[in-house]
Specification:
By secondary structure, the protein is of the alpha/beta class. The protein has two domains: about 220 residues, Rossmann fold (3-Layer(aba) Sandwich), CATH 3.40.50.300; about 90 residues, no CATH class. Helices cover about 30% and strands about 20% of the residues. The strands form two sheets. It has an eight-stranded mixed beta sheet with strand order 6-7-8-3-9-10-12-11, sandwiched between helices. Strands 2-1-4-5 form a four-stranded antiparallel beta sheet, covered by helices on one side. Helix 4 crosses helix 5 and helix 4 runs parallel beside helix 6. Bound molecules: adenosine-5'-diphosphate (ADP) and magnesium ion (MG). Adenosine-5'-diphosphate binds next to strand 2 and helix 1.
Length: about 350
C-alpha cells in the first residue's frame, strides 16, 4: 500500500500552566493526548468536537507552529520535526492553512492581488505581469472576478474575504490544506458556497483537506472520514457514512442527535451534550467522557479506553460499546444492536 500523504502518530501537546524553575512540577494543560490518524492524497478528514477539545492545537502542530510534547507528524513518510531549513521551506509549500477569521489574517493595507500572490513571491520573484496573471487566475479559481484584485480587504464581504484566504492558500498548489473553522464565521448560505468551492477545488486539483469544525452539519457535507475528539483525544474515527448512520461512541451519538437538520431557518442548538466539557488541566480519570456518559460503568472511571478497531473499519474508544477484549474481526456488537436512546444525555 502506498504511503499516506499525512501520518500523525501519538501526537501529544501539553502546555505548561506557568513557566519558571518549578515548571516540571506544575500542572499542565493537556490540549492533545496521543492522537493518531492519517490522510490520503485528495482526501478530506474532518476533526470535530466541542470548543477547547484540542482541534486548533492539532492544526498548529501539523503546521509546526508549535512543537509537540510527544509523537510525530510525517509527510510522505518524512518526520517534519527533522526537517532542516531547505526541506522545511519545500514542505511549507505543500501544506497551507485557511483560518476561521479571514479578516484578522489578511493584511488590511494590501490589495487582494498582493495578498494572494504574497506566498508565491516568498518563493520566487514575479514580474508585475506575472503577478497580475497569477492573481487573476487565483481569483477566478475561487469564483471571484479578476477586477477584485485591486480591492482592499475592508471593501470585501465576509464570504469574499474567505475566498481570498483560500486563493492565497492555493497560490503554491499545495497537496494539503488545513482549514480551521474556515466557514464557522460565515452565514449559512455563504457557508454552503464556500464548502462547495472547497469540494470543486478538491476535485480539480486533488487537494487533501484536514477540515476542522465544531459543526457536524458542515462536516457531514464534505468529509470522507471523521475523527471525533473529546478533551484532547480521538474517541471515534470512521468514514462519514458509517459515522452518521451508526455512531458507536456515546459522545458521537449525542453530537449527531443534537445536530439540527440542515435548515437555515433553524437555530443551531448549543450545547449538544448536557454539562460542560471538563478542564484539560485536571481531566477525569479513566474515560474523560464518563462524568457525562449515562452508559458509564466502573471500568470507565478507572481505565482510559484504547481505540479499538471494529469490523466496519472504524476505531472507537469506549469500554461499554467497544470493549478492548473483543477479538478484531468479530461481529460488531454495538453496531448490530438497535440504537439505544441515552437518557440523560440531554440532547436539547
Ligand atoms: P479547540 O480548537 O478545539 O477549541 P484548542 O486547541 O484551541 O481547542 O485548545 C485546547 C486546549 O488547550 C484548551 O484548554 C486551551 O485553553 C488550551 N490552549 C490552547 N493554546 C494554548 C496555549 N498557547 N497556551 C496554553 N493553553 C493553550
Ligand atoms: Mg479552535
Amino acid at each position: 500500500m502506498s504511503e499516506p500523504l499525512l501520518q500523525v502518530e501519538n501526537l501529544t501537546k501539553h502546555y505548561p500552566l506557568a513557566s519558571g524553575i518549578f515548571r516540571n512540577t506544575l500542572p499542565v494543560i493537556r490540549a492533545v493526548e496521543n492522537v493518531s490518524f492519517s490522510v490520503e492524497a485528495g482526501e478530506t478528514l474532518c476533526i470535530v468536537g466541542e470548543s477547547g477539545c484540542g482541534k486548533s492545537t492539532i492544526a498548529r502542530l501539523l503546521m509546526r507552529l508549535v512543537e509537540p510534547t510527544g509523537g510525530r507528524v510525517l509527510i510522505d513518510g518524512t518526520d517534519i520535526a527533522g526537517l532542516k531549513r531547505e526541506a522545511l521551506h519545500a514542505w511549507r509549500r505543500r501544506m497551507q492553512m485557511v483560518f476561521q477569521d479571514p479578516y484578522s489574517s489578511l493584511n488590511p493595507r494590501l490589495t487582494a492581488g498582493q495578498i494572494i500572490t504574497e506566498p508565491a513571491e516568498n518563493f520566487e520573484r514575479l514580474s508585475r505581469e506575472q503577478r497580475n496573471m497569477l492573481a487573476a487566475d487565483l481569483l477566478q479559481k475561487v469564483g471571484m472576478s479578476p477586477e477584485m484584485m485591486h480591492r482592499l480587504p475592508s471593501e470585501l464581504s465576509g464570504g469574499q474575504r474567505q475566498r481570498l484566504g483560500i486563493a492565497r492558500a492555493l497560490a503554491l498548489r499545495p497537496s494539503l490544506i488545513i482549514a480551521d473553522e474556515a466557514v464557522s464565521a460565515l452565514d449559512v448560505s455563504v457557508q454552503a458556497q464556500i464548502l462547495n468551492l472547497l469540494l470543486d477545488l478538491q476535485q480539480q486539483m486533488g487537494i487533501a483537506f484536514v477540515f476542522i469544525s465544531h459543526d457536524l452539519g458542515v462536516v457531514e457535507h464534505i468529509a470522507h472520514r471523521v475523527a471525533v475528539m473529546y478533551l484532547g483525544r480521538i474517541v471515534e474515527l470512521a468514514s462519514c457514512e458509517v459515522l452518521f448512520a451508526r455512531p458507536v461512541h456515546p459522545y458521537t451519538e449525542a453530537l449527531i442527535a443534537a445536530a439540527p437538520v440542515p435548515d437555515p431557518t433553524r437555530v443551531r442548538l448549543q450545547p449538544p451534550v448536557e454539562g460542560e466539557m471538563p478542564s484539560p488541566i485536571n481531566p477525569p480519570t479513566g474515560c474523560a467522557f464518563h462524568p457525562r456518559c449515562p452508559l458509564a460503568v466502573e471500568r470507565c472511571r478507572i481505565e482510559v479506553p484504547p481505540l479499538v478497531p471494529m469490523a466496519d473499519g472504524r476505531v472507537v474508544a469506549c469500554h461499554v460499546r467497544a470493549p478492548a477484549t473483543d477479538v478484531p474481526g468479530q461481529p460488531d456488537v454495538a453496531a448490530n444492536s438497535s440504537p439505544q436512546t441515552i437518557a440523560g444525555l440531554g440532547v436539547l
